[in-house]
Design a protein that fits this description.
single chain; mainly alpha; disordered N terminus
């Protein structure tokens, strides 16, 4: 044997018959799941009186919090579909927040948005050079990007915001001066009509009105851009020759090379796009959410974006649903969170009971018994309390992240060559 223990073996060519069955859901199945979830939440709202569950304000706040998470997850999807694991999303978002805050207050928020994207692209290229050209372990490189981004932005913030015109405009070593706002839009007439229906608190109808109202009221242009980017990414990656070649690099780069694909070029392009999307997510935080760059502004959203990507099984549709779920759970702490989370305990009881029934039906008695036991504990918690402590409400997004990943882990299918080192000519 001439290969050493440190060599990374090339991925074997995938066989057509080994493709996972049922890895995706049909549109009718997705619609049934959404309808069932809406009916369940509507019933819980009526039973508990927690009208904030589907209110316009709750949905609007959830959408604002879901956008940076979704953009981070979309950034991870582009990178990992090409075979490059991108743990450095958090650092690229940090670079995006600084770039947007730095340029945004000096010129216009639009230029700040572009600068945030550009700073994210630079972070992505650093990760690409380390992993693609020099073969550095993807996890090590991503962690290094996170640390470098944090250190660089802290240094630059002290350099640019602590004195002179920046200090006079409200800057300090930990934040930039405020920038102007990006425009937002409402749908004329529709927002008021939906708000009127929501206030009646009718079963299901008011819930639909509240959800739709949150999606069409005070909508940032960056949110609209993010929605278009999700649709565009799906079309590019799954409906164009470019996307097919890029995904082949993540599945089997040796086979892709044998068919004439320049694997390095596609990996570089994917990681650069990944950095730009993460930078856009950071710019959203700096220009839409708070109008300033603030140290530690990302708050781990890059990692939650990765969790949303995994929850979505490396697909834009599932990723969008995951980002919405995490954004919704994060928004609970902003709007009467203790009582709303308390009502959601009943939702958790129902879901655990359904899971237990399914496991028992499948003869998985041990797992079904555990699910029933946990459901009983959660129900007892609901019955003996009136409100969830604020400390737990603040931890809700991270608890939801752990629960979702643990429940969805069995159906996941990552790109086969994701994270593997590739060298040109490896298959010869």
């Amino acid at each position: 044997m001439t290969a050493t223990m440190t060599d990374t073996p090339p991925p074997a060519a995938p066989k057509a018959e080994t493709a996972p069955k049922g890895s995706g859901r049909s549109l009718s199945q997705i619609l049934m799941i959404v309808a069932g979830a809406l009916l369940l939440v509507s019933a819980i709202r009526v039973i508990t009186g927690a009208n904030q569950l589907t209110s316009e304000g709750q949905v609007s706040a959830a959408l604002g919090l879901a956008v940076p998470i979704g953009l981070a997850g979309l950034a991870g999807l582009w990178s990992e579909r090409s075979g490059v694991v991108n743990i450095g999303l958090e650092g690229m978002m940090i670079l995006g927040t600084f770039g947007a805050g730095w340029i945004g207050w000096q010129s216009s928020p639009w230029l700040g948005l572009l600068c945030g994207i550009g700073f994210g692209v630079l972070g992505g290229l650093v990760h690409a050079v380390a992993t693609i050209t020099f073969g550095v372990d993807h996890i090590v490189s991503g962690v290094a990007v996170n640390l470098l981004a944090l250190g660089i932005t802290q240094y630059l913030a002290k350099l640019f915001f602590s004195d002179g015109k920046a200090a006079e405009a409200g800057g300090n070593p930990k934040q930039s001066p405020p920038s102007d706002s990006l425009p937002s839009v409402d749908v004329p007439g529709l927002s008021d009509a939906l708000n009127s229906i929501e206030k009646h608190h009718w079963f299901l109808l008011s819930d639909l009105a509240g959800i739709l109202g949150g999606l069409v009221t005070d909508l940032s242009v960056v949110t609209i851009m993010a929605a278009l980017l999700f649709v565009g990414s799906w079309w590019v990656l799954w409906r164009t020759p470019f996307g097919l070649r890029l995904r082949s690099c993540g599945e089997n780069p040796v086979a892709a090379e044998s068919l004439g694909v320049n694997v390095y070029k596609y990996k570089y392009a994917a990681v650069a796009v990944s950095g730009g999307l993460a930078g856009l997510g950071g710019a959203f935080l700096a220009l839409v959410t708070s109008h300033i760059y603030l140290e530690s502004q990302t708050g781990g959203r890059g990692y939650i974006g990765l969790a949303a990507m995994i929850f979505g099984n490396w697909r834009p549709g599932g990723l969008a649903m995951g980002a919405g779920l995490f954004g919704y759970s994060d928004a609970l702490q902003l709007r009467n969170g203790g009582q709303t989370v308390h009502a959601l305990l009943l939702v958790l009881v129902v879901l655990l009971a359904l899971l237990a029934g399914w496991k028992l039906y499948r003869k998985a008695h041990w797992q079904g018994g555990i699910a029933l036991f946990v459901a009983a504990l959660v129900l007892l918690w609901y019955l003996v309390t009136d409100e969830v402590p604020n400390d737990f409400v603040g931890a809700t997004p991270y608890v939801v992240t752990l629960l979702v990943l643990s429940l969805s882990a069995q159906r996941l299918r990552m790109p086969k060559a994701d994270g593997m080192r590739y060298r040109k000519g490896q298959g010869k």
